[in-house]
Design a protein that fits this description.
This protein has one domain: Rossmann fold (3-Layer(aba) Sandwich). It has 12 helices and 8 strands. Strands 3-4-2-5-1-6-7-8 form an 8-stranded mixed β-sheet, sandwiched between helices. α8 links the parallel β7 and β8. α1 packs across α11, α7 packs across α12 and α8 runs antiparallel to α12. The longest helix is centred in the middle third of the chain and has 18 residues. The radius of gyration is 18 Å and the shape is globular.
Length: 273
């Protein structure tokens, strides 16, 4: 089974990309499981057609652990994709990172995930690589880590921080950086900047996803682009990305930059002539 994770700055389009990749893989005939590790609970929204009504932590809060059944927390989404949301604490209470640890441990205890899946995708908030959010990396749940980033400085800053976490755990485990997925924000010199950022990070640009209004339209219909507009150019972009991920063998230990180096790089490419 292929075990991957998507990390990235909040709002960068990580969950949208995850869901479209999962949908594309399932349409390629792969059995896919997507696990949302973000307290917003929105990772699987486009696959389920609604915000997940019962997350793992929701069930933990309202039931004795011994009474929880896997069918309570494992849901079926688009084209048979297995969908799970770890969930998070109530606003202002508790630690979301700790919640991810509890959720993943409970999934293990219940043997809740199907054993015959071809690929499991963990969709993880990447602004803060604390103990909980780093768990898919640290505990080996995911072996191949993809970072979703635009050419904006703060997105690159988050990507660089995530790379630091990958490097730390790669030394003593099998986890590797599988590449950067560029999600365009139409900033100046964006693709060239991302290509150079990848070189500095000792990785490659897996894909550069163009900005297209069809993504937003599909989201407003609570669907992936693959479901809403399967013949669109953007659907083709996600299909190509899914195929690249399935066949990707370019796995590396990253070489993160200092913030000063990152600022200089962004300043070189990210300005209008």
């Amino acid at each position: 089974m292929k075990k991957i994770a998507f990390y990235g700055k909040g709002g960068i389009g990580k969950s949208t990309t995850s869901s479209n990749v999962s949908a594309a893989l399932s349409l390629m005939g792969k059995k896919v499981c997507q696990i949302g590790c973000d307290p917003k609970n929105d990772s699987t929204r486009l696959l389920l057609g609604h915000i997940c009504k019962e997350t793992v932590l929701d069930k933990v809060r309202t039931s004795d652990v011994e009474d929880i059944k896997k069918e309570d927390i494992v849901h079926r989404g688009f084209n048979g994709i297995t969908c799970v949301e770890a969930g998070g604490p109530e606003p202002g209470v508790g630690c979301a990172g700790r919640g991810i640890i509890v959720a993943l441990q409970l999934l293990d205890k219940l043997k809740a995930l199907p054993e015959d899946v071809d690929l499991t995708l963990y969709d993880v908030l990447g602004d803060v690589v604390c103990g909980g959010f780093a768990m898919p990396i640290r505990e080996g749940y995911a072996k191949e880590i993809y970072i979703v980033s635009s050419g904006e400085l703060m997105s690159l800053y988050a990507a660089n921080n995530i790379a630091k976490g990958i490097k730390r755990f790669a030394v003593r485990g099998e986890v590797r950086l599988a590449g950067i997925i560029g999600n365009s924000r139409n900033v100046p010199g964006e693709k060239e900047l991302l290509l150079e950022f990848c070189k500095k990070l000792n990785t490659h640009l897996v894909a550069f996803i163009p900005r297209d209004k069809i993504v937003n339209i599909a989201e407003n219909h609570k669907q992936t682009v693959l479901e809403y507009a399967p013949d669109s150019a953007q659907a083709g972009v996600y299909r190509n990305l899914a195929e690249t991920i399935w066949n990707n063998t370019e796995l590396t230990i990253p070489t993160p930059m200092t913030f000063e180096e990152l600022e200089k790089l962004a300043g070189t490419y990210g300005t209008e002539d």
